[in-house]
Structures are given as structure tokens and as C-alpha cells.
Design a protein that fits this description.
The structure is a homodimer of 361-residue chains.
Chain A: H1 38-52, E1 64-68, E2 71-80, E3 86-87, E4 90-91, H2 92-105, E5 110-121, H3 126-143, E6 146-155, E7 165-175, E8 191-194, H4 200-210, H5 226-233, E9 239-243, H6 249-261, E10 264-268, H7 276-285, E11 299-302, H8 307-315, E12 324-330, E13 337-340, E14 346-348
Parallel strand pairs in A: 5-6, 10-13
Antiparallel strand pairs in A: 1-2, 2-7, 3-4, 5-7, 8-11, 8-12, 9-11, 10-12, 13-14
Domain PurM-like C-terminal (chains A, B): 187-332
Pfam families (chains A, B): AIRS (PF00586), AIRS_C (PF02769)
Protein name (chains A, B): Hydrogenase expression/formation protein HypE
Chain lengths: 361, 361
């Protein structure tokens, strides 16, 4: 890096710089900072937000809700760096569209438009780019969103390996009048629901990256969830909070909600749908399926009396066929998520610290 | 790349794949595809738009204008990959904020909010990230926009070099009622204005990248232009088109407008403000200053009778002190930009093909 006296930004003395992030001693970025767990939260809370200063909105969440004239819109951004770019069930293209569509849907918004920004490494075959763009077009059509503006940058390929592609999508959705879904709204007694099998995306990517076989092929669950959310909202139930558990898995999503709402959560492990192939893979690799990424699943916190009709509506939708009640919000152990194990004991379902599976999305 | 039968995306046979881009024989991405010139346009028109299919909006421009309820918003995205990340006059952080603020301003919109998405290479010092974020916060405050949502991903560092940082910003601006600024609105007789010295940003980055000295230090002109645009609009003049000439320089911006409007443009080379240091650097390196990137300048096409009062308003604003009338829209040579040279001849001011200066923004 070239440092010049003319730079308008004060240059910290790196040697004497007090690193504000306590979880790691390293003064450098490590893979775990991108894992969506505690290290990512630390990076945002202790470095980005103080540095942004007064320009930062109070909460830099997965999506922001803004008033524009008489309307409210949701606004969300995500970059995708998944490796490999093509995996069973999908590729970086549909993942990028579905990921931002889902972030908007989790705010109860109807996704309208996406921007698409590509960073392409020199040497990437154009046929690969076309295939990714084709997947994006199909995914956008399936989700009912338009791709309205874009950007393309090219970076040099210093590694000499095959070209990497990074895709950013940023989306705008319309939040219906009266919609109030947010992580701080969970209350004691609320039901905790999941829309189907968890851990599938992470295992699908990992299996093709490491060349591992787990009996049957596991295909990513990448899918748009806006239709499912619409069906859930149409029941008129009080849906308190929604999250699509991507990086950090179900554990990260439920811990975020428990922390924001100040409630505890009590899950029944045996009620959480985990496919045998995911169990096998996680057993072999020492992973917790609750911490593995999903790309077409959601967790929902709903008012106690509304759980049954929401579950019925979910099961009637293609993306929610495997929906299950997996636990309750409780007054015990506030901000902590605990699961009853199959052996009659309980275990803490922790927020993951760093990154179990780097570059999973 | 791992190919699997379970992938949901059809796999083109790369060997028999007919590359749709005529400008280069290479079936792979080259640096020029990111240059903002003819090769970038080809990539968008012949690969991205057909692949996106029905999901693509008719025009994937620098920014899209959308109706939300009773309001109109502008929506724009840009990724920044500039190398080095710190250069005289600024860094990738303020560049990323100003770049998207300016794209929104060029639609006549008041920029409101930005998303910020980081792709960080493993090993990047946290002190560098903090410095970039600090610059983003200051630039956002200066431009009057809020940073409301974000994302962080980490990629492995296969090159072993110092960590690279890529920043995407995507912004939303409010388009005032009745505002109608667009590249297709130029008419014969219109005045062509530029807000000040051109070519500065490109030479600033290049000089510190290549370790070159051009007599005096050239500092980047990175700056927010929304205040200048507001002042121009406040005159009540008929402003037909605005562009901030970044990648591809003034030549690319004027060619885009000439093409979209079907008019010719006649410039007077001696009236275009080019600092001596930029002339020297371009002479040495064989570059055309008209094709070198700017990050704090705009070109404006205004109705014939309105040029003087717009120029007065520009010169009264800190970002427009050096504003000049540099030419006219003409009926001759439609869609072509031509300049009268100092030697009494004329030359065609071409759209750049590829990339003069890779990774300039």
C-alpha cells in the first residue's frame, strides 16, 4: 500500500494501534470475520459503526426499513463469494438473487427490484459468466423481481488459478402498511417454527468442495422465500420475527432474536428436522447442523395462539412442506438458546464464534 | 470448478460455445471488460442482458428511476476495486461513497441512503479497514447521506500479497417531482458544460501506482456532486443530461449522451480545462486526457439559452469553480463527438474501447 502525505484520511500508526476487537489477538482480518457469527458482529459493532460515526444509522441490520413519501421500503445488500461457484442444486447466481430476495422477505417486504454488481477476475471464461447471469435471470423471474441496474469491475488474477467471480445484489422491497416484523418482538410463550430441513446448503457446498461423498448427493436448498412469507402473513397471524438462517445457521438466527428480544428459547432437538445425510456429514466433520448455512429456509417466531394456522399455511406452500414447531420462547435463561437433547439432557445452542465453513455464500 | 449433474443451471459446452462479444477473440474476461468503454457496453448488451432475459429492465443504466407509491426514487450500484487503496487526495472509502452519491445526483435525485458491502481478503490489517470505514463515514456526512445497511465477506488470500479490499455501495435517492434529466434528452444547439479540470483522478492513482513523478503531486478530485447539481437545478434552467465522467473519462460520457440522443457534439479542445500536470502525465504515457477518469467532475447538457446562468451557478459552488462551456450539440455527424484541435484541425473523440488504466475506481 502506498502512503502519501496528501491522503485526506488520517493514518493510524499500525504498530501502536489498539485493535478494538477482543475475540482474536490478530490485528488482521481472518476468515471468521466473514462467518456471520460473533466475530462478524464484533467487527460491525466495534470497528465499522464507530468509524462510520454520525453517518451510520443506529442499526446496520440485514435490512433497513425506510420511509419514502407515504411508503415504507426495505433495503438490503449482500455480496456472494461462494466457492466453488457451481454446486449441486444451484450456483452463485441464483444464490445471489435468492439471498437478497429472502433478506427483504424477512422484513415482511414484497421484493421489487435488485441491483447486480459483478467483480470478475481476469481470465474468467465468458461462458461461466453467462451461465451465472442466466441463473440470476431465472431466479429473479421465479421470485418476481426485476434486475434494474448494475456494475462490472475486473480485477487482475494474481493467483494464476481459475477466475473468481464475486456478485453483489442489493434490493428494494415494499413494506405493507401496518407490517411490524423484527428481531426485538419475540415474547415469552411465542412459538419457534422452522420451514423445513436444516443444514442442507452448507453440506452441499462442502461436499463438492472437498470431494466428499455422504451416501446420497445433498443438493443446496437455495430458493426464494417471499411467496412462503406472503402465505404466512395472509393468515393474519401475529408474526413477531423472521430470519433466513444463512451463515451461522439456525443457531445464529435464534441467538440474534433471543438477544434482541431479551427472551430465552427452549428447543426440542428431536423436533428439528435434520436430514440423515446432513447428520452423517456433520458427524464426520465435527460440525453442528444448527450452525450450518441454509439458503431456502426460515425460522419464525409467532404468537402462542397462532402457531397452528401459520404451520398449516407453511405446509401448504412448496417451500414450507417440512415446517415444524421446534420450541418456545421462555422466561428462563434470557437471551440464551437451549435445546433438550435426545438423551434427556439439555445443551446450550451457542452463537457460532467464527466460520465453520468459509465462503459458503 | 466442480460440475455436477445436480446443478440447476444448464452447462454450456465451453469448447463449442459461441462467444457473443465481437470486440475481442478471447473467450475470457480481460481487464478491458471493466473499463467502462465499448467492451463493457458489449458485455452488458450482448451477454448480461440476454442472459438475464425477461427479468432485466429495458435499460441497465448507471442508475434506475423507479416509482414507489407517489414517489420516484433513483437506485444505483457501484463496486470499487481501486489499486492502491490509498492515493493522494483520497482512498477507496471516500471514492465508494462519492461514486454512488454522484450516480444518484446525475439523475437529478437527492441522495438519501447507502448500503455498504465489503469483501475483505484474509490478512488485511484491521487498521486499514478502520481507516477506509472512517473515510466512508466522513464522506457520507459531507454528502448528507446515511449508511443504513451492510454486509461483510472474507475471501482467502491465495496470492500471498497484502490484503485487498473491495467495497460495494448501493444508493437510493429521491427524484423531485417533474425532474426529467436523461442521456436521451440532448438537442441540437444545446450547450456542453464541464464543471472543472478533467483527468485528475486517473493521473493521481496512476502516479502513485507506478511511482511516477510529474513535477507536482496530482491529488484525486474525489468529491460529492449532489450540492453542485442542486445549485444548477435551482436556477430553473432546462438541464437535459448530466454525467460524472468516471471510467472512460469525458469521452465515454459525451459519446453515451450523443448516442442516446442521436445528436453530434462539437467541442473546442482549447476550452476544455486540462491541468498542465495531467497534460504532462498523459503525454508521457500516451493517454488521452479526455479518456482519463474523474471522480469529482460532471458534464452537463443544457438548453441553449440557459448556459450562462447555469455556468454562473456552477462557478459560485466550490465543486464548480472551474466550470466551462466546452462545446455544442450539432446536427452534423449524429452520435459522434468531434473536437476542434489547437492546430486548426478536428479530431474524433472516440468512445474508449477497453481499459486505459485498470482498477482506477
Amino acid at each position: 500500500m502506498t502512503e502519501t502525505a496528501a491522503s485526506s484520511v488520517p493514518i493510524p500508526d499500525a504498530a501502536n494501534w489498539a485493535c478494538p476487537l477482543p475475540l482474536r489477538d490478530s490485528p488482521n482480518i481472518v476468515m471468521g470475520h466473514g462467518g456471520g457469527g460473533a466475530m462478524t458482529a464484533e467487527l460491525i459493532d466495534l470497528l465499522f459503526l464507530p468509524a462510520f460515526g454520525a453517518a451510520a444509522a443506529a442499526e446496520m441490520g440485514d435490512s433497513a426499513v425506510l420511509a419514502i413519501g407515504d411508503s415504507r421500503i426495505a433495503f438490503s445488500t449482500d455480496s456472494f463469494v461462494v466457492k466453488p461457484m457451481f454446486f449441486p442444486g444451484g450456483c452463485i447466481g441464483d444464490l445471489a438473487v435468492n439471498g437478497t430476495v429472502n433478506d427483504l422477505a424477512m422484513a415482511g417486504a414484497t421484493p421489487l427490484v435488485l441491483s447486480t454488481a459483478f467483480i470478475l477476475q481476469e481470465g474468467t471464461p465468458l461462458s461461466v459468466i453467462e451461465r451465472i447471469a442466466d441463473a440470476m435471470g431465472r431466479a429473479a423471474e421465479a421470485a418476481g423481481v426485476k434486475l434494474v441496474t448494475g456494475d462490472t469491475k475486473v480485477i487482475d488474477n494474481t493467483s494464476g488459478g481459475p477466475g473468481d467471480v464475486y456478485v453483489n445484489t442489493t434490493g428494494i422491497g415494499l413494506v405493507p402498511d401496518g407490517m411490524d416484523i423484527g428481531p426485538a418482538r419475540a415474547r415469552v410463550g411465542d412459538a419457534v417454527l422452522v420451514s423445513g430441513d436444516i443444514g442442507v446448503h452448507g453440506v452441499a457446498v462442502l461436499s463438492c468442495r472437498e470431494g466428499l461423498e455422504f451416501g446420497t448427493t445433498v443438493a443446496s436448498d437455495t430458493a426464494p422465500l417471499n411467496g412462503l412469507v406472503e402465505a404466512m402473513i395472509a393468515t393474519g397471524a401475529d408474526i413477531r420475527a423472521l430470519r433466513d438462517p444463512t451463515r451461522g445457521g439456525m443457531a445464529a438466527s435464534l441467538n440474534e432474536i433471543a438477544k434482541a428480544s431479551g427472551v430465552g428459547m427452549h428447543l426440542v432437538e428431536a423436533d428439528v428436522p435434520v436430514p440423515q445425510s446432513v447428520k452423517d456429514a456433520c458427524g464426520l466433520l465435527g460440525l453442528d447442523p444448527f450452525q450450518v448455512a441454509n439458503e431456502g429456509k426460515l425460522v419464525a417466531i409467532v404468537a402462542p395462539g397462532d402457531a397452528d394456522r401459520v404451520l398449516d399455511a407453511m405446509r401448504a406452500h412448496p417451500q414450507g412442506v417440512g415446517a415444524r414447531l421446534i420450541g418456545r420462547c421462555v422466561s428462563d435463561h434470557p437471551t440464551m438458546v437451549v435445546a433438550a437433547t435426545g438423551l434427556g439432557g439439555t445443551r446450550v445452542v451457542d452463537m457460532p464464534i467464527g466460520e465453520q465453513l468459509p465462503r459458503i455464500c
